[in-house]
Amino acid sequence: MLTVAVTGPALAGTSTLFRAIAGPAVAGDRAVVALPDPRLAALSALYSPKKTTPVQTCFFEAKAVPAALQEADALCVTIRCFSFTDDEKLDAGATLRGLVQDLLLEDQKRVENRLERLRKQKGNRSPAEEREWQLLEQLLPRLEQEQPVRGFELSADDAKLLRGYRFLTAKPLIIVGNHHERGIDAAQAAQLAAAAQPYGWPVIDLCATIEAEVAALDSEAEKKEFLASYGGADPVRDRLLRTLYDYLEAICFFTVGPDEVRGWSIRRGTNAKCAAGEIHSDLERGFIRAEVAAYDTVIAEKSFEACQKGKKSRQEPAGYIVRDGDIMEIKFNV
Predict the structure, then answer these.
(1) Which fold has domain 2-36+56-90+171-247?
(2) Which CATH superfamily groups domain 269-332?
(3) Which of 173, 327, 302, 331 is nearest to 252 (CA)?
(4) Residue 309 to residues 49, 255, 297, 298, 315: CA-CA distances in angstroms?
(5) To the nearest whole number, what is the mean pLDDT of the chain?
(6) Fold for domain 94-169?
(7) Which of 19, 148, 206, 301 is most exposed, with the fewest beta carbons within 10 Å of its own?
(8) Is the whole-model pTM more than 0.85?
(9) Rounded to an integer, what distance in angstroms lies between the CA atom of residue 328 and that of residue 325?
């Protein structure tokens, strides 16, 4: 399950944004939120399973301190785009740049500390530690030049070697510009977008106060009416999830049956064997093949089993690249 830290500077409205995402029924600072996907509902209607499980994401509210943020897979950073007083000189872009500096410095400090320890082991470093040294030596000047770890090209083995660092600037970031109830401040929105642009970070502009009020409403009809009254289309939770999964280049595949219909999220380009591992490690370890049918075909044929009988499903090997909307049945032997 993807874990997202909702964070930001003091007085940015982070707690309000978290309430808008989590809804009023959630107690504490964590909420598990379903990724909206109408395909899952359609598949569930076909099977009437005992259980329907969507792709889920855990959001938690976090103070902007390293220990809290390192736990997350991605960061949702709240930036204030409204002034408290008429004479306050606000610059949302500068606020974001300052926060980025803090993240870069934290990562730089971790690299410097580790290099110092490895330096003392010169002559006694293992092959893995020697490679770690080489990678950190390449990474340090990048951080000193204010370039995030994300984008630093690594092989699969090298990425595994550095995974334990949980670098803050290696994490995907979504920036949320929190505006006044009167509406979006175009100047602040532009400054924020300009500050995020060099890093390729997506920006969502909204009013967290209004979004929290919408989340507290009882019926979906009321929520849609309230959102429409101030020009919104979807709740912030749905917009954040779609933006996050698009940014991560994530796709969904499904498993179906009378017991459970379930959605699974993987990175675009993932092969069938690795996708099977998302379901269970045994399926990846003992992978033989995947039987696959496209979502539209399953809907048209009324079930995955009908696709199998009608020879409208396919037998795919381990290297098959899973497509968005695939329904899969994994054949394995452990």
Answers:
(1) Rossmann fold (3.40.50)
(2) Beta-grasp domain (3.10.20.30)
(3) 327
(4) 21, 17, 13, 12, 13
(5) 93
(6) DNA polymerase; domain 1 (1.10.150)
(7) 301
(8) yes
(9) 9
